Amino acid sequence: MMRAPCCDKMGLKKGPWTPEEDHILITHIQRYGHQNWRALPKQAGLLRCGKSCRLRWINYLRPDIKRGNFSNEEEETILKLHGILGNKWSAIAARLPGRTDNEIKNFWYTHLKKRAERSQMHSMSNSTSCPLQKAQATCSSEAQIRMPQVAADASNATTSNASNGCNEIDEEMEFWYNLFIQTGQ
DNA sequence: AAAGTGAACAACCGCGTCCGC
DNA sequence: GGCGGACGCGGTTGTTCACTT
């Protein structure tokens, strides 16, 4: 299928947003909402593509965005969820109020990935059995494949079906797994 | 003080999925 | 059921800033 060009259209601006553009976007969305991202920039008088507007709003301009450093609790949550979900940033973000997928993704690649890799190396060399490390070492790739199915089956799933593949899910993993089932993911 | 380097963050791009026609 | 437009997601790139030499 031929895809319509987006930001490469003639005359559309790219790059960092100015405070004026932010103000226009916020004002327009507060007034009219964002039913149609593609039409929004034209209606608002912005020389941006709809995609760019959406990204800007979702990641930085939304009133419920929580800016600033991640707390230790948030870090741990991300690590645990990533162990279960893999790179499902939007799913992880859905469980961290005020955080966006882009922010979590950046934080992961700049902070947590190194930490996770280090601890994984450490666990491999020491043959420890930290639940999270074990989950990341043994289940993450599999979880990436299986989770969509798990999500689809969440409504009628029981915790027992977690045993296919990742057999050694312990209490902590089970807690997070149950959380997903309860939230319908 | 200047140049080099790496980390952190913001934004873009391409693809998959959803949904209306 | 197929097609096409729009949206959302994840990966990647670009830019800025801080630190080191």
In short:
The protein is elongated.
Describe the protein's topology.
Layout: H1 19-32, H2 40-44, H3 50-61, H4 72-85, H5 89-93, H6 101-126, H7 131-138, H8 140-152, H9 171-182
The chain binds a DNA duplex (21 and 21 nucleotides) through residues 1-4, 6-8, 14-17, 36-38, 50-52, 54-56, 58-60, 87-90, 101-103, 105-107, 109-111.
Q: Let me know the number of strands.
A: 0
Shape: elongated
Q: How would you spell out the order of helices and strands?
A: HHHHHHHHH
**How large is the count of helical segments?**
9
Strand count, sense and barrel status of the largest sheet are: none
Structural class: mainly alpha
Helix content: 55-70%
Rg, rounded, reads: 20 Å
How large is the share of residues in beta strands? under 5%
- Separation of termini? 31 Å
Uncertain runs are 1-5, 127-169
The chain-level mean pLDDT equals 70
Can you tell me the number of structural domains?
2
Describe what this molecule looks like in 3D.
By secondary structure, the chain is mostly helical. The protein folds into two domains: 19-61, Arc Repressor Mutant, subunit A, CATH 1.10.10; 72-182, no CATH class. It is 59% helix and 0% strand. The chain has helices at 19-32, 40-44, 50-61, 72-85, 89-93, 101-126, 131-138, 140-152, 171-182. Helix 4 packs parallel to helix 7 and helix 6 crosses helix 7. It is elongated and about 60 Å long. Mean pLDDT is 70; it is low at 1-5 and 127-169. The structure holds a DNA duplex (21 and 21 nucleotides).
